[in-house]
């Protein structure tokens, strides 16, 4: 249960790529707005290609982060127990010991029949 | 286009950077201050675990056969009454007044105080720094609108009346960072970092009740009277009914594989319920019929789920 | 500790429930930061900003549902709707932070 999952290199690559795309579109917006200010133009929304690049980077980052994150583990106890063998759970009945707290717990019990 | 970029370079980014770095430093300082985790005290651990044992017995008793359940129930009841699990036996006089003499209690207080200090000191220092150096000018425009009432809080130091609330001062940038960087810290430092607001809220609600190393403290901070709690748990135990999960497992198995119709189970349930209520009406039993009906309903629900 | 134990809890492995919740929070908080950056770059204001966040969150939820939970979230979470709702409000705060940051840097400063 304490085994680390192998890191997903493809996922990290995808995340990096999407982040670079985001940075690039951010810088393009910045340049575009400076250009508009330089020629005294009014703001009329961002050019189409920057918006498309932005949306693509967001979508690709979503894909990447889902790949990078650890897998989900099943939560039902049954599936976990199904993976255990009988040897790990209840082994070697000929080696049972009897010097345990049952001696104290069951001392005064009367078995009703 | 509206603000000087020097503000961005010398105020916006530095404040954010400082808060991130202070958060990281605070995390490592807390780790160093706390040192190695303390070894749990055997008697305190035994106390808490005995209580949990009784609760587990009540909740999962259906896994045990009748005799095992009864044996554990009587043993635990007797132990609670006699006080075998108490940390300080009933006979000894522990002076309740002077709590400062108990070293374990002092440890718990110190831990709580350390955590509080590590949270409050950086916050106060940074707020003072910002108010001293970065007051009196507009820092940034919020992209979303707020009501007029926030104006006095967010535009502290800027004496205009008509500017709309989206233009805010540095202090509001500090608050934005304070809340927004919580998840960033979780990403960088892992989930157990010292700046976690959730952990603070939990710590405030369960003061003193952390590892089994410290003595038990109630919500008011007074050490709880474990003997009374044990007696209360004994009452609960005495009321517990035993309900063996394997009672009618043959019928359930046959129904599951279709050899017998499901109506057989339902008939058994209603018959058992009728018998139980008849016996409860006839003889005065301690469990009220409402609880009995509730257990019978839970029984049938569990059987239906397991089948 | 009060004696409020629910026998139904024995069906689940607590550690895995917590681990799944932690993974979900990780995914949500990193994605909220990126959404905030994108919203700031786009220059969204008022309602469109919040709408963008919830749409983006829904997109992420569907991605997680399809890729990570393999279309059966009930195996990984106690309630199948947890995939869609967990961590959304926590991510909102960091979304607002990064949204304000980028909006300020690109659209307000020179």
Q: Work out the number of β strands of chain B.
A: 2
Cα radius of gyration of chain A in angstroms: 31 Å
Distance between the termini of chain A: 44 Å
Give, in spatial order, the strands making up the sheet with the most strands of chain B. Answer: 1-2
Broad shape of chain B? elongated
- N-end to C-end Cα span of chain B: 70 Å
The percent range for strand residues of chain B is: under 5%
Low-confidence stretches of chain A: none
Give the averaged pLDDT of chain A, no decimals: 82
Biased composition (Low complexity) (chain B): 277-298
Family (chain B): Belongs to the EMC3 family.
Transmembrane segments (chain B): 12-33, 120-144, 173-195
InterPro entries (chain B): EMC3, EMC3/TMCO1
Summarize the topology.
The complex is a heterotrimer of chains A (113), B (307) and C (110).
Chain A: H1 9-38, H2 48-68, H3 77-82, H4 86-89, H5 102-105
Chain B: H1 5-34, H2 42-60, H3 66-82, H4 103-133, E1 140-141, H5 151-154, E2 167-168, H6 170-189, H7 197-205, H8 226-239, H9 249-256, H10 263-282, H11 289-306
Antiparallel strand pairs in B: 1-2
Chain C: H1 14-42, H2 46-68, H3 82-85, H4 88-108
Helix pairs in contact in C: 1-2, 1-4, 2-4
List keywords for this structure.
heterotrimer; B: 307 residues; mainly alpha; two-stranded antiparallel ribbon; 11 helices; 2 strands; 62% helix; disordered C terminus; C: 110 residues; 4 helices; 70% helix; elongated
Overview of the structural elements:
The complex is a heterotrimer of chains A (113), B (307) and C (110). With 113 residues, chain A is mostly helical. Chain A has five helices and no strands. Chain A has a domain at 9-73. Chain A has helices spanning 9-38, 48-68, 77-82, 86-89, 102-105. In chain A, helix 1 (9-38) packs antiparallel against helix 2. Chain A is rod-shaped, with a radius of gyration of 31 Å. In chain A, 17% of the residues are buried. Chain B has eleven helices and two strands; from the N terminus they run ααααβαβαααααα. Chain B has a two-stranded antiparallel sheet with strand order 1-2. Among the domains of chain B are: 5-36 and 97-205, no CATH class; 245-307, no CATH class. Chain B is elongated and about 85 Å long. Chain B has 307 residues and is an all-alpha fold. Chain B has helices spanning 5-34, 42-60, 66-82, 103-133, 151-154, 170-189, 197-205, 226-239, 249-256, 263-282, 289-306; strands at residues 140-141, 167-168. Chain C has one domain (25-108). The N and C termini of chain C lie far apart (58 Å). Chain C is mainly alpha-helical and 110 residues long. Classes of the chains: A mainly alpha (113), B mainly alpha (307), C mainly alpha (110). Chains in contact: A-B, A-C, B-C. Chain C: It comes from Podila minutissima. Chain C: InterPro entries: Emc6, EMC6-like. Chain C: Keywords: Endoplasmic reticulum, Membrane, Transmembrane, Transmembrane helix. Chain C: This is ER membrane protein complex subunit 6.
């Amino acid at each position: 249960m304490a085994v680390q999952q192998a890191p997903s290199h493809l996922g990290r690559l995808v995340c990096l790529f999407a982040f670079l795309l985001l940075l690039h579109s951010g810088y393009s917006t910045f340049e575009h707005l400076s250009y508009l200010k330089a020629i005294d133009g009014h703001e009329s929304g961002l050019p189409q290609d920057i918006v498309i690049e932005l949306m693509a980077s967001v979508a690709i980052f979503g894909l990447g982060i889902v790949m990078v994150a650890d897998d989900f583990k099943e939560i039902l106890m049954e599936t976990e127990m199904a993976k255990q063998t009988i040897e790990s759970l209840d082994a070697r009945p000929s080696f049972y010991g009897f010097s345990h707290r049952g001696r104290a717990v069951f001392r005064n019990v009367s078995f009703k029949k | 286009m509206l603000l000087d970029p020097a503000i961005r370079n010398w105020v916006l980014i530095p404040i954010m950077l400082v808060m991130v770095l202070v958060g990281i430093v605070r995390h490592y300082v807390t780790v160093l201050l706390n040192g190695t985790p303390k070894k749990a005290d055997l008697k305190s651990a035994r106390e808490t675990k005995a209580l949990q044992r009784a609760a587990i017995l009540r909740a999962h008793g259906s896994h045990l056969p009748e005799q095992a359940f009864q044996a554990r129930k009587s043993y635990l009841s007797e132990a609670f009454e006699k006080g075998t699990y108490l940390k300080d036996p009933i006979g000894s006089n522990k002076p309740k007044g002077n709590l400062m003499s108990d070293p374990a209690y002092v440890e718990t207080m110190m831990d709580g105080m350390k955590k509080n200090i590590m949270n409050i000191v950086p916050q106060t220092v940074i707020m003072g720094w910002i108010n001293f150096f970065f007051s009196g000018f507009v820092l940034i425009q919020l992209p979303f609108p707020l009501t007029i009432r926030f104006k006095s809080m967010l535009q502290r130091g800027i004496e205009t009346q008509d500017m709309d609330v989206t233009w805010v001062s540095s202090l509001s940038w500090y608050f934005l960072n304070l809340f927004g960087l919580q998840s960033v810290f979780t990403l960088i430092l892992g989930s157990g970092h010292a700046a976690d607001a959730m952990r603070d809220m939990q710590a405030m609600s369960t003061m003193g009740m952390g590892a089994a190393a410290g003595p038990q403290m109630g919500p008011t901070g007074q050490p709880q009277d474990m003997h009374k709690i044990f007696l209360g748990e004994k009452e609960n135990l005495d009321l517990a009914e035993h309900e063996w999960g394997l009672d009618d497992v043959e019928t359930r198995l046959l129904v599951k594989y279709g050899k017998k119709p499901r109506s057989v189970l339902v008939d058994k349930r209603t018959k058992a319920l009728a018998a139980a209520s008849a016996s409860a009406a006839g003889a005065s039993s301690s469990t009220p019929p409402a609880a009995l009906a509730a257990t019978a309903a839970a029984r049938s629900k569990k059987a239906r789920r397991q089948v | 500790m009060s004696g409020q134990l629910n026998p139904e809890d024995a069906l689940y492995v607590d550690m895995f429930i917590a681990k799944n919740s932690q993974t979900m929070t990780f995914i949500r908080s990193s994605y909220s930061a990126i959404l905030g950056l994108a919203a700031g770059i786009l220059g969204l204001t008022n309602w469109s900003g919040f709408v963008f966040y919830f749409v983006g969150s829904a997109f992420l939820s569907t991605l997680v549902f399809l890729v990570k939970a393999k279309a059966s979230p009930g195996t990984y979470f106690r309630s199948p709707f947890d995939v869609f709702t967990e961590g959304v409000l926590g991510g909102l705060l960091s979304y607002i932070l990064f949204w304000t940051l980028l909006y300020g840097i690109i659209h307000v400063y020179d």
